[in-house]
Amino acid sequence: MNYVRPLAGAACALALSATAGCKLNVKPEQLAPADVETTLFLIGDAGEPDPRERSLVLDSLNAQVAVAPERSRMTSVWSFFRKPWRR
After folding, report:
1. Does position 1 have pLDDT exceeding 70, yes or no?
2. Cβ atoms of residues 71 and 39 within 8 Å
3. Angle (CA) 77 80 84, round 5°
4. Alpha-carbon gap, residue 28 to 31, rounded angstroms
5. Are the C-beta atoms of residues 35 and 3 closer than 8 Å to each other?
6. Cβ proximity of 74 and 61 under 8 Å
7. pTM given for the model
8. Domain ranges of the chain
9. Among 28, 35, 69, 74, which is most buried by a count of CB atoms within 10 Å?
10. E strands within the chain?
11. Do the bridges between strand 72-76 and strand 39-43 make them parallel or antiparallel, or are there none, so unpaired?
12. In whole angstroms, what is the distance from residue 58 CA to residue 46 CA?
């Protein structure tokens, strides 16, 4: 019974060494802007903003959505994952 653990370790080491040398050779396909159906913008919560300063992040987001408003969707990550019973 003392040979089971070393044998399992050797099997794991063999499996790891066999798969470690594999490389995924898939190149991402380049899409033209007209081929993009929908762009989803997820907005997270980074804390309370400073009311004295204008938000450059939201200005940038509005500019990006304005490029293709009919194909852009915006949602808050907080409302996306919020459970109704946690109010």
Report:
1. no
2. yes
3. 130
4. 9
5. no
6. yes
7. 0.45
8. 33-87
9. 74
10. 39-43, 72-76
11. parallel
12. 12
